[in-house]
Amino acid sequence: MSHFVAQELAGFLKQTSLFAILGDDLASRLAERATMQRFSLGETIISEGEKGQFAWLIFSGRVRVLKRLDSGRQVTLGTQSIGELFGEQAILTDSPRSATVRAAEDVVLFRIDRVDFLEMLDHSENLRQYFDRFMHERAIQDFLRTQTFLGKLRAKDVTSLLDQLELREFA
Q1: How would you list the strands of the sheet with 44-46, edge to edge?
Q2: How far is the C-alpha of 89 from the C-alpha of 55, rounded, in Å?
Q3: Whole-angstrom distance, CA of residue 129 vs CA of residue 22
């Protein structure tokens, strides 16, 4: 990646809520190692079941996240847009991809290699804690969308409903 593009990406990383907690050095190092890729409307970026080698950060455009149910029916888990990350779950859990992601429109993405992603987490405890919480919340959303009557709702409505709930723990 050219130095200019890496500088642009480092600035973009610092502006996204997810990566804003990274120090300048870590953001720059991650930006230098990332690669930019373009996908056209409808193109598959990752496929459910494949090994996760990369996480993807959306620079422009939108993607649709899809899950195939046991019945064979495909459910939209949601859409993601500028500044959002996807593909990290397979890296964090060392498991196959849990969903398929397709370009919902022409999209420009930054690809972050597994090794670089894990190194970033090793250097930022705050980011690691964020992803722990994020993974827990996403698991709940995915369960509700695929295993309950809430699967008939739009993904953003399920997210809105979850935002109104209060976590309770019982012994």
Answers
A1: 44-46, 100-103, 63-68, 74-80
A2: 8
A3: 13
Paired tokens of 83: 């500044």
**Burial code of 98-117, b = ≥16 C-beta within 10 A, e = fewer?**
bbbbbbbeebebbbbbbebb
How would DSSP label each residue in 154-171? -HHHHHHHHHT-------
Q: Indicate the DSSP class of residue 142.
A: H
3-state class of 65 per DSSP? Answer: strand
Is the pLDDT higher at 57 or at 130?
Answer: 57
Q: How many helices (H) and strands (E) does the chain have?
A: 6, 8
Residue pLDDT, tens place only, 48-63: 999 989 999 999 999 9
- Tokens, residue 110: 């930054």
What's the burial of 40, exposed, middle or buried (CB within 10 Å: 0-12/13-18/19+)? exposed
Q: pLDDT for 9-20, tens place per residue?
A: 777 777 776 677
